[in-house]
Amino acid sequence: MSIEGKNIMKLCSFYVSDWHLVTMLLPYINRKINEKEKIVTVLESDIKNNVETLVKRLNLRNEEEILNINWSKKDNYISINKLLNDNIEENIIVIVNGSKEYITKANKNIDTIIEKNKSKIEQKNIKIINCYEIVEFNGSIVEILDNHDKILNTSGEKEIYEVFEDYKRNEKIS
Predict the structure, then answer these.
(1) Residue 134 three-state SS
(2) Helices 18-34 and 48-57: crossing angle, nearest 10°?
(3) Over the stretch 20-72, which tens digit does the pLDDT of each residue have?
(4) Which residues of 63-91 are buried (b: 16+ CB within 10 A; e: fewer)?
(5) Strand ranges for the chain from DSSP E
(6) Are 41 and 70 within 8 A, CB to CB?
(7) Burial degree of 117 (CB within 10 A; 0-12, 13-18, 19+)
(8) What is the dihedral of CA 76, 7, 105, 138, to 10 degrees?
């Protein structure tokens, strides 16, 4: 997705439990903090205790920064708006987690915020990572894949076809 040359990428991720979600996200977030990326969350459920427990068990270089991310159940749209308006050049990662309906609503709100701030985000790349709990998902996985640019799993960002070899994206003419 691109708004007048701005780089906005949507990734999807699938997990089977909150523990699996946190286990998958922490190494990725640790790397992205090293790359000076800013991270904000939009969460339907609180995963703070899971993050705190795993961070203490893992040897992560950026433990303090990870714990300072808001892992509580909260719509952090104000934080997203602030990051877009700050005079920083860092890239922004927005982690969205919840039911399919929650993720859809959150993405609409994020898109609105980005559109309203498009003149202020000239040097920023934005990644939106939508995390779906596969156990509760009862729709077509292809529909989700079609609406995302890449997939995030325990080994990091991957092209969708690298994870789902038979996946064929419905090519959209732009």
Answers:
(1) coil
(2) 60
(3) 999 999 999 999 999 999 999 999 999 999 999 999 898 888 999 999 999 99
(4) eeebeebebeeebbbebbbebbeeeeeeb
(5) 2-3, 6-15, 38-43, 74-75, 92-97, 125-133, 150-153, 156-158
(6) yes
(7) middle
(8) -120
